[in-house]
Specification:
- There is one protein chain.
- The chain is α/β, with parallel strands linked by helices.
- The protein contains eight helices and seven strands.
- The model has no long low-confidence stretch (mean pLDDT about 95).
- Bound molecules: thymidine-5'-phosphate.
- Thymidine-5'-phosphate binds next to helix 4.
Amino acid sequence: MRQGHFIVLEGVDGAGTTTHSRRLCDALGKKIAVHETREPTAGPVGALLRQALTGRLVTPGALGVRPPAWNTLALMFAADRLDHLEAEILPLLHARISVVCDRYYHSSIAYQSLTSGSDSAATVQWIREINRHAIAPDLTIVLDIPAPVAAERRRRRPGVEIFDDDPLQAQLCEFYRELERHFPDQNIVHVDSNRAVEAVSADILAHAEHRLRSAKPA
Ligand code: TMP
C-alpha cells in the first residue's frame, strides 16, 4: 500500500518543471518527508536517453547512422520509468515518503505521439499500453505557458536537444492545455507559469497541500 503521495509536474520545455519541482520539494520538505526526482532518470536507461536527447546516441543501420526513432524512444522512456518505479519511487512511497517527479508518462503521451508522424488514437493507445504497469500519480500539476514565452526561455539555455523545435513545442503547448482529455480519470490541475516564479510556486504548493490534506495516497 502506498503511504506517501506521488506528485508529478508536467509541461513543455521552458515551462519550468525542473525549477518548480525543486521549489515544491523545498517547501513541502519543511513539513513532510519528501523526495525529489525526475525523468529521464540518472539510471542506466535514463543515461542513454539523455544521450539520445542531445543527439549523441546514434545506431548504425543499412542506410547509415541514425538516431533512435520515436517508437524506440517511447520504449526506452517506458523502460526507464518502470525501473524508476521499482528502484526508487515505490519503495519511498511505501516508506511514507512523498515523491515529487519532474515529468512522468504524460510526457511520453505528449512528446512521443506528437513526434510519431501520426498522433492517432492507435499511437496514443500503444504508448499507454507500454506504460500500463506505471502507477497513476495522486496529483499532476501542468505548468501552462504561451509557446513564444517558452521558446524565449529555451533560447536562453545552453545546448540544444532533439525536441527544441518551436513548431513542435507550440503543438505540445496545446496538447498540455488539454491534457485531461487523455487522462479523464486523473487528478490534474493547471497553473499559469507565465508569472513571477514566487507566484507560480505559491499556487503549486497550494495545490499540493490541498491534495495532501484532502485525500490518502491512491
Ligand atoms: P528535461 O529533463 O529538460 O525536461 O528534458 C527531458 C526531455 O525529454 C524533454 O524534452 C521531454 C522529453 N521526454 C519525452 O519525450 N518523453 C518522456 O517520457 C519524458 C519523461 C521526457
